[in-house]
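User: What would this chain look like folded?
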Amino acid sequence: MDFVPFYSRYKDIAIKETRTIKITASGLGIPHGEYMLLENYCSDASCDCRKVMINVVTVNPPRQILATIGYGWESLEFYTKWMHGDKDVAKMITGAYLEPGGIQSEYAQHFLEVFKASLTDEYVTTLKKHYKMFKNYGRKNYGHKKKRIGY
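Assistant: Here's the prediction, encoded as structure tokens.
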């Protein structure tokens, strides 16, 4: 499954709605600065994984990915069924986690904690909306029912 940046399909919306975090406090284990939370969604039209991969990227050049965070907003039961009964993997992808195989820096665990703290209902609603938009990208209704990605 390939994950593709949201901005590759919806640049104008991504410019307006991409979240950033600004670290000004000491003691968080992260260098002071501003970081973008770039959303990536699964490009497989038949997949309904209901998750996002977030790249934490420095705003100022040279842009670097400092963490890759996965976030699955559905229940453990949903992911257990989606994973054909594999409860261990389902537990891992329910909620926020560091994405295995993703780019991780020495600050990744700290960014994960900041990300978890930023998960407001409004932000989760935005992620779900972007997921639905991404999954429905380019679909046309030719007299057939559109496949809807639901949650």
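Residues 3-135 form one domain. If you want, I can go into more detail on any region.
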